[in-house]
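Protocol step 4 of 6: structure prediction from sequence.
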Amino acid sequence: MTAKLILVRHGETEGNVAKILDTKLPGLPLTERGAAQAKAFGSGLRATPRALFHSRALRAAQTAGYIEAATGVSAVARDGVHEVQLGDLDGLSSQAAHDRFQSVYRLWHEGRLAERVDGGESAQDVLDRFLPEIADLRAQYLDGAGSGDVLVVTHGAAMRLVGRFLAGVAPPFSTNNHLDNTETIELVPLPDGGWECARWGRFTPPFGGQAESGADDPMG
């Protein structure tokens, strides 16, 4: 089977529980439940990954640390794969703050990549820092000899945006189907240099008709 790039959302954090828009580095730590989720994810892997990376956020590093303990694969930090930065909305938990971000986030998935919240990143900013990291990992681990998946512990909003534009997973699926803690987006490299999405959370292709709105924890 073709090795995959697996984007893994970190375990539950104190910010997720309190519905805080927690984007600045290093961010809040895992809860006890989040640590248990990370341990279960690592021990539940069917095969040992070829490589394991994580964003520089504390929650991602902690999640990757538990996966490292379960698999024996060293976890390495990568720049560029952290969460969408929300500027003036960072640290807020109000419904108004969440609604404001979601309104911009939906525009991103519709192709309006220059939109941003005050003081925050645009979608283009996020893709410009995230996609080169993916290209580098692909060149190092997936396009040549060798086998085994590459895991990157990252963040909900950023990884959904990447899945949307790398693999063409379109809205409303991409905007409505949020990822729970330690759920994954699995990307298969194609011979033409593109990517195919093999899994989005609990869903497998085709994705078009599956849209479940209403999840209350879209990012972090």
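Step 5 (inspection) to follow. Helices lie at 14-18, 32-44, 58-71, 95-109, 123-142, 156-167, 173-176.
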